[in-house]
Amino acid sequence: MNKIVAHAENLRTLLNNKYTVQYYQREYNWQTKQIEELIEDLTNEFNEFYKDGDKQPDVRNYGDYFLGPIIITNDNAIIDGQQRLSSLTLLLIYLNNLQKQRPDLPKVNVDNLIYSEMYGQKTFCINVPEREACLASLFEKGDYDINNERSESVINLYNRYKDIERIFPDELKENALPVFIEWLIDNVCLVAIRTDSEQDAHKVFVTMNDRGLRLTPTEMLKGYLLSMIDINTTRDKANDLWKGKVVQLKEIEKDGDADFIKNWLRAQYAETIRERKKDSENKDFENIGSAFHKWVQENKHHIGLNHSKDFENFILNKFRMYADIYMRLKDYSRKFNKDYEYVFYNADREFTLQYQIILSAIRNDDTQDIIDKKIKMVSCFIDQFISIRVFNFKTVDYSSILYTVFNITKMIRNKNISELAEILKRYITDMNLTLDCIDGFYLNQFTKRYMLHILARMTYYIEEQSGINSNFANYVNREQKNPYDIEHIWADDYTQGNHQNDFFTEEEFRQFRNMFGGLLILPKDKNRSFQDMEYSKKVVKYDSENLLARTLNKNCYSNNPLFLRFMNETQLSFKPYEQFDKKALLERQSLYKEICKKIWDVNKIDLLANS
């Protein structure tokens, strides 16, 4: 092996280069969880140093943060590290777009760390040609049309950028923004291990990953717990159970064992969370996230681990039970199960905190029937909590509601069914937010990521209630060949219909066009072919689509007894429209509000409790 050199390099130095990725490892496959962890780690570390009033020069006195090693050749071929470098590039693109929105703040120039330009063409830090169009579009306008995209890496890049938009803390978008960017590029470091050849780089990679592996936190926790069990046969039984459950958890996802343990300990035992201000110390929530094996040892008495029997029970009873429930929840989040539908709905909206909240309500001595009820009740509550906030244009991003979720977790921890129902219902009614706000709900950049889900829920609800074999999962599946898209009932043409009589300006027309009541869902090919049609032609086509679309056509109200019965029983004001003008749109908006009030009815929590 030739000479190997390793240096700690900050992002300003590291990203001021262009890197190639070998064809056999070109996929960018980070998921939401990895981006959440990256943003949480970076922002938590930054907040260790930042205080109100700090300016960019103060970063000189801030500490560094180490993001691990990467392996590259001297001609800049990446052997290990492209996931992190690609994700950091996305973060810099997002931060740069934030700066464009804040001309009142000092600008930190990061363009050269994102791309270089020659002959009018941008070349990005990770130089993979198929990604360039997406990255260029994200850099220039913060968006990219992935409807016809076939590359898994490009789709993942786009989705992770949208994750960053959703996750990045609001408090860092203000005066702290330029300070954070300076800290990120100058104080966040990776160790770049450089080799002369690709062959040597692979040897280093194998050595680092296959030899002398450090124990994971899960393995260290197991070792500690087993060491406290006195009886050999019991210890062996506990060891076998632990190993079996860890294998099952890892089959769900790569770090499934650690993710479960963090959710479990936070749900059942965490009492404190770090304040987001200068000099605040990490508390239970953060310490469980970073080193749960140490946290358990330091808090063993709080957890109730005092004698050998306690450690036996912790593995053979509690670990087993909560791991099984967690795996059930993960299964419900991936495959639609009508009995546990709300878990799927919450997962579809990428609400990763639901597992912690649900686990917190479940007692170790609950019967299977009670466990099932609690899963249904709490997941229903979470669905209502998310929906009410979204309809009121309130974020449900991870960093923004972490404290709220932590308080909910403690509030419902180990409560019985009647107590749980009362707490959940009271929380919803005390939110000071209602569904009456739907009168003003519309499609914009914030609601775009939720609108398909909402319209799919409405479509599924009225079809199911009308005896139609409906499939919510199909409506929101973005991986299928012809996925559903949001359909505007009005074509994007101010000159059509009565729009010029209804609206003084084209701008006002466009605002109304995005109103909730003027939207449907259709398969992508139909959405594309219908988009320029006049309403009189569209409404004929709608008659062969989903029931929410069909209700605009008069044929829906003939020879459709189950739908008519549903309409009469619910007193929902469905009606057909030969013309769809401003008045019709506002009527439809009111109808949508009433449908949503039935879907997200707080009394459903009681129904589930008494089922």
From TrEMBL:
Residues 448-553 form the GmrSD restriction endonucleases C-terminal domain. Pfam families: GmrSD_C, GmrSD_N. Coiled coil: none annotated. Residues 13-225 form the GmrSD restriction endonucleases N-terminal domain. This is Uncharacterized conserved protein, contains ParB-like and HNH nuclease domains. The lineage of its organism: Bacteria, Bacillati, Bacillota, Clostridia, Eubacteriales.
